[in-house]
Description:
Elements: H1 3-17, H2 29-45, E1 47-55, E2 61-68, E3 71-88, E4 91-95, E5 100-110, E6 117-119, E7 126-128, E8 151-159, H3 164-195, H4 200-252, H5 255-265, H6 271-287, E9 309-326, E10 329-344, E11 347-362, E12 376-377, E13 384-385, E14 408-413
Antiparallel strand pairs: 1-3, 2-3, 3-4, 3-5, 5-8, 6-7, 9-10, 10-11, 11-14, 12-13
Bound molecules: zinc ion (2 copies).
Amino acid sequence: MDSKAIRDEFFEQYVEFYKGGPVPSNASNDFAYYLECHRKRLEKKGIQAIKKIEKIEDNIDNTFNREKQPYILDMTYKECNYETEYYKDGVFLARSDKDTETLYCNVLHKQGYVEETVSCPNCGHSAGAKTFINGCPMCGTGFKTFKFFPCVTSFYTLPKFVERSSIDKGLKNVVKFGIAAAVIVAIGVGLYNGIVNKSWGAGIFFGIIAGLLTGWLGTIFMYLGYSLFVGITAFSKMFAQAADTSDIQAARLTRKRFETDMRRYFPDFSYEYFEGKMQDLLKTIIFTEDRSNLSIYKGHDQLGYLNDVVDVEYRGGFKYMGSSVVGDVLHVRLINYVTCEVWCEEKLAKYQRNFRIEVVRRLKTQDDLGFSIHAVNCPTCGATFDAMHVDKCPHCGNPYDLINDDWVVILVGE
Ligand SMILES: [Zn+2]
Ligand SMILES: [Zn+2]
C-alpha cells in the first residue's frame, strides 16, 4: 500500500476515532498511545472534540522521504480543511477556524518486514501484531510491546492562508451568473418585442443583441467587482495573518542555523523529522496524567497546569534558542509555538502558548527511525519491554535510559 493511500485511510479513521471509534489501524504504537492519552483527557473533562478533514479541490499533495536502511519514512503533506468542533454534554462550545491547512502525516515503512506474531500476556491469544492495536482482540488487555509496518508515526497540521480553490469556485460562479443573466434578458427582450410589438423577427434580433450585451458587460462588471472583493478580503486576511504569525515567521528564520549546528553532530539530521518528533513529545507530555517516572520527560516541574489542556495545535514553527554539549550529551533549547484549548472553570478558552523546551540526547546515538519507546530492546538480555513508565528492564533489572536511544525532554516552561 502506498503512503498516500495509508494516509487517506488514516485520516478517515482519525475522524472516526474522535467520534468514539477505535484507534486508527495504521497508527504506530507510540502514536496510538498518544491518541489514547488524548481521549482519556477529553473524557475526564467531559469534552467532545469532533475533528473534520475535508478534501479541497486542486490541493497540494506531496511526499518527501528519508531513508535509513531498513526504514523509509515518507513525510506526506496535503492541503485540506481541518477543523475541530468542541461540545460539552452535547452542547456546542466552539469551532476552530475553518481555513485551509496543510496536514503532515509521516508513514514509516520497513523493507523486508514480515508481520511478527504476538502473544497476549493475559490470555495467550496469539496473532499478527497489527491486530493488537486496540488491545488483545480476545480479552481486551492493552499492551504495546510490538511494532508493525507500514505505520503512521506522526500527524500534525500547519495553518495555511491562500484558499485557491474557493477563489476558482467564485470565478466559475461569476461566469455562470453572467450566462444566466444573458439568457433571461434575451428571452425577456425577445418576448416583449414579439408580444407587445407583435414583431417576432425584431424580437429574436433584439433578444440576441440584448442577451449578448448583458452577458458580456454583466460578466465584465461582476468580474471586476468580484476581483476587487477578493483582493480586499485577501489583503485584509493576509494582513491579519501576518500580524498573527509574525512570531512564527521570525522563529522559522532560525532554521538554517539550527540545521547547521545539528549536522555537526548528526550529519544526516532531518529538520522535518525533528519537528514532528518535538510535536509528538510535547503533546504526549501534555496529555499524560502521571508525569512522574515518565521516560520521555525528566524535568522537575510536574506541570500540573497542563492538566486542563484539552487540545493542542501546532502553530507551524519553533525557534532555535541554542545548543550546548555537556560531557557527551547534547542540549538543545527551543521555543515551540502552539495553540491550546483549555477547559477551566466550566469554560473553554483558547490560548497561544510559547513553550520553552529543552531536549537532550547522547551524541553517539543515531536516529533509529524504527525506534519505539513502547518496544525497546534491553541491551543486556535482549527482552522487549514498554519503557514509557519504567527505568529498568523488567526481565533482568538492568537500568534503561532513553537518552541512549532518543531525545528526552528535560524542561517545559513558559
Ligand atoms: Zn488476551
Ligand atoms: Zn534485560
